[in-house]
Amino acid sequence: MAAESSEGEEEGKLTGGNQILMIDDDLREMGKKAAWSVSSCKPGNGVISLRDDNLETYWQSDGAQPHLVNIQFQKKVRLQLIVLYVDFKHDESYTPSKISIRAGDGFHNLKEIKTVELVKPTGWVYLSLSGADPRETFVNTFMLQIAVLSNHLNGRDTHVRQIKVYGPRPNPIPHQPFQFTSREFITYSSIR
Amino acid sequence: MLDFDELHDVIFSHFYHSLFFVKNVLAQISGRLFSDSGPRRSSRLSGEASINSNGNAIALSGNGTNNSSKHLGGSKLSHIKFRSMTIRKGQSWANENIEEGIHNDVQNDSRLNITSASSCSSHVIEVKSCEQEAPTLPDGGLVMSSSKVISGASEILSLLRVLGEGYRLSCLYRCQDALDTYLKLPLDHYNTGWVLRQVGKAYVELVDYVEADRAFSLARQITPYSLEGMDIYSTVLYHLKEDMKLSYLAQELISTDRLSPQSWCAMGNCYSLQKDHETALKNFQRAVQLNPRFAYAHTLCGHEYVALEDFENGVKCYQSSLMIDERHYNAWYGLGMIYLHQEKFDFSEHHFRKAFQLNPQSSVIMSYFGTALHAVKRSKEAMVIMEEAILADRKNPLPMYQKANILMSLERFDEALKVLEELKECSPCESSVYALMGSIYNRHNMHDKAMLHYGIALDLKPSATDAATIKAAIEKLHVPDEIEDKL
To answer: What total of structural domains would you count in chain A?
Structure first.
């Protein structure tokens, strides 16, 4: 699975970034249900800064590369998208340039599912976890690890301001193979 | 003379005490009438001194200086009025109610029906006792002369009768009957805030959101500052996905009264429609804080917990809603949905059955009840319920789709396809219909048709999950080359 999905995207280079976080309606944030940890951090710029919805604060690593962010879920979850906020204008050499995303049941069997290269990004950067095969639209996993392999301008430590993890919304109607799409179906499909 | 709208609200908030209220109201009316006309009329009657003095006594009491004597006079008058009522209408009303009470008992033995039947009969007894008392009144001739009072009072009573009957029926969730009853009202009374809100609520129970929207928005035009029922209105707008109207309503309600649970329910619905379920939950919890006895706010909290997949708290919310109001079918439905999610099908069936017993006219509840029945392997009953649901509401495509689902799992593919073909005609833009057809053709090994339907389903923007499923299914299809080219 890991080998297949990394084929097309291996060389993926991402530039720019969005100032406004735009997410499809059928995705929802999953990070709240996870336990977050980092390989190292400077006091005052800890893991909490990654999840505080504040773009002014940032997580700053304080150790040897690669810098790791571990996202562990209580149960197996379906994930589709990771969104990072990084800011080259402010962070310069602290801005990550090469990122690897790994998934697995725990620390013991993480497999790389994607690597991306960021080129002077400022804003929200979208990293899709989908593979080329339609059966690999989602990653079913207990754990996700985001590894910052290198920074811009050969910087040592890294800054990441926000990380969000998205998975598909489940079908609101249990025991139905497909979700309703048209308004008339949705209107009459439930009561409140 | 009296503000009828106010009268409705006062009287129907205490429906079961309505008779008592009517007496008081009549006491006031007759008191006022008598205070200016009583002595004059009695002198015109040129009766005996005793009658005159009696008339004066009533006139005095009518001035409201002495409360107890006023009530005395009032009750006498109301007895007389009741006599005329019973002659004209009272008797037939009584019979009708008793019949209906028994009918309800047979049809549906929930507790309220029994209590309502008994309360009806107690009303009847009161009416009868009044009738017995009436002839014993000494000066009947005096009051008979004031025929205006009697006709006015009986008019009010017949009006209240219609309103009460409508309210009773809608409390029993016999909503179509309730709507028919409200239609009997004169136009001036139909177009009042209270009646229109009741009409709107009845339409909601019948899952006719468009009509409900119309009734509620009229009600809002007439009584823009009334908050009662606005929580339901916001739910209607939620279902219709009218996000603009909904947020406007929420804003207006909040500016009208920040401390009413209805306002915060509307606000919560607004956020829920934007899929911001956490904020929605906070708003609904605020509504609960403001009035912990407001059952609907608890239910809405439950819905939000379900949307956040926190079923444990969802169950708690629904249960606290049911503690307040056992007949709040939305909470039963919510519990049924949770158990359906958790695949506890027996529980689910039980809770949907409860909801169904309370509101047997909602096609949505019916179709989920059918789904639950099918899940506990009672497919025959499930199919019967589904047919009923389809007949109950032609506009609702849900029972048809669920029926096709059941047929498919029973491997009655041809029938399922027939149902889906019909659905396709009604709503040609529904991706899930084509997707389901595709998978049926797939099971049938008709790969070309499966391919065609999967393709259409994909074009209609299914959710990412479904798109992945469909694409995966397409890859597995073995399609001869020339057909693949044609597509």
So the answer is: 1
